[in-house]
Amino acid sequence: MRVGEVIDGQWEVREIREGGLGQVYVAYDAEWQSLVAIKTFKSALSSEARDRFQREACNWISLPPHEHVVRAYFYQVIAGTPYLFMEYVPGKTLRQTIEAREPLCRLVAYAIEVASGLQFANETIGLIHRDVKPDNVMVTVEERLREYRLAKLTDFGLSKVVSMSVLEALPGVQFLVQNQSLATTIGGLGSLFYVSPEQADDAYNVDLRSDIYSFGVMMYEMFTGRLPFHASPTDDSEAIVADLLFKHATEPPMSPRHIAPGIPRKLEKVILRCMEKDPGRRFQTYSELISELEATYRVVRDPAVLTSCDFFEIVVRPRYSETAILNNRACSYMELGHHVEALALFDQVLKQAPEDVHALCNKGHALEQLNRYHEAIGCYDRALEIDPGDGQACLDKANSLAALGRHEGALPCYEGALDRNPQDAHTWYNMGNTLVLHDSCFWGWVFVSQHLHRGARDPVEERFDEEVQRAVDGG
To answer: FRET label pair with 85: which of 34, 228, 237, 356, CA 20 to 30 Å apart?
Structure first.
């Protein structure tokens, strides 16, 4: 994919951001006339990794909106490639913000915001992030107040999708793990400089206290400008991993105030408690952690610096409408084969927007997957009542009628769809199939092939010609 190319006829790629394992396309959504972020992977995933990506993406999508969480809109497989469509957040990563040396009170506010996002995800649907680090936090400028900054957490659960990990930020050197046995050992750990001791032992069975440890490491870096643990420089990747994990498990971090004496003692205590080796000695809830950070903020607050802590409430304004988000989330469930869950979401959409033709057709598709064709036809009929010119509803109704063996009823629906879109090769193809089944002769193929648009060759068109030739040869 290159800048300027269009994904699935709707999303024009404006920018490509590279990560260690994945890519994020910043794309313009022609339908919604806004920018969206689209995450995918650089190389093909194994079937197991793709399944994990689908599950983790679906979990993230199911999160309701929150001001400190990047919104995941929907998941879709296009031409065999999985894509996760997310809220586009203009701005910088928290890592870039740390390097810019923001005021102390603003950094404390960012910490409170990230902790709030983690708390929301965990308390709402039990999500564990597993890869809390400055690169997975975006800092954006709030549109209403030019000087106002807002931190948003991203990449929920996606760290455990792949079985490779990039070792980054070593002084002057960047190592890529290439040894397959090593890759298997560290798969799912997240970034090694932030990983909790228990996550190193069992990456898939951790609780919120593991994220609190990683959050503590991130805060250590935010307020001192350096990481608590470094591996000894070497070209031996396995030695680097072993050294880092050993230090996370056994070595106490240096006092943050020893590095940055301006850090308040109260804040230092919060950081070090988050980084306790024993999970039982850390903060046990986000409420307790946030309460301590808020007390710190009151000490370091600067009236000249505007932060979210100066507001009681922030209004979340998604770029997509709520019905569109629900509809896309339901389509993501369809992609995953969760048709019952998708159906429930389509019902929510239609409760809010009963004349949403797009949602009616999508609900019909879900019903078809559950072999409830008569109910699906009812959805398409309702869509056509609302918009008699909707060709997709005509086509969907025709396909359901054909699936029930009601070929005579399907044919006028196909004709109606072709009246609205006469160049659609797939409709011609389905109509040809129905004519053959209805008339029990090959003339249906011949009739339809004569009416196909002759331009760029379409795979369906080529299949048509093959079927026609087979029928003629058989005749």
So the answer is: 356
The residue type of 317 is R
Q: Reduced to 3 states, what is the DSSP secondary structure of residue 316?
A: coil
pLDDT band (50, 70, 90) for residue 316: very low
Pairwise CA distance, residues 146 & 246, whole Å: 44
Which residue has 């019902």 as its token pair? Answer: 347
How far is residue 294 from each of residues 72, 76, 108, measured CA to CA in Å?
Answer: 28, 40, 8
Q: In CATH terms, is domain 92-310 a member of 1.10.510.10?
A: yes
Is residue 373 within 8 Å of residue 403, measured between CB atoms? yes
Phi, psi of 282, rounded to the nearest 5 degrees: -85, 180
Architecture in CATH for domain 6-87: 2-Layer Sandwich (3.30)
Residue 283 CB-density burial (10 A; 0-12 exposed, 13-18 middle, 19+ buried) = buried
Q: Give the tens place of pLDDT for each residue, 410-460.
A: 888 988 888 888 877 777 777 877 777 665 445 455 555 545 443 434 444
State how far Cα 284 lies from the chain centre.
Answer: 28
- The answer to pTM > 0.70 is no
Ramachandran assignment for 293, one of left (phi > 0), alpha (psi -120 to 50 degrees), beta (any other): alpha
Instruction: Check residue 364 and give its pLDDT.
Output: 92
CA distances from 193 to 102, 168, 230, 471 (A): 22, 8, 8, 65
DSSP character string of 72-114: EEEEEEETTEEEEEEE---SEEHHHHHHTT--HHHHHHHHHHH
* Tokens encoding 155: 């990449």
**Ramachandran region, residue 130 (left: φ > 0; alpha: ψ -120 to 50; beta: rest):** left
Domain segments of the chain as ranges:
6-87, 92-310, 338-421, 426-475
How many other CB atoms are there within 10 angstroms of residue 103's CB atom? 13
Fold of 338-421: 1.25.40
CA 39 to mean position of chain CA atoms: 7
- Alpha carbon 428 to its chain centroid, in Å, reads 36
Beta bridge partners of 77: 82
Q: Quick one: which of 121, 59, 128 has its CA closest to 279?
A: 128
- DSSP sequence for 341-389: HHHHHHHHHHHH-TT-HHHHHHHHHHHHHTT-HHHHHHHHHHHHHH-TT
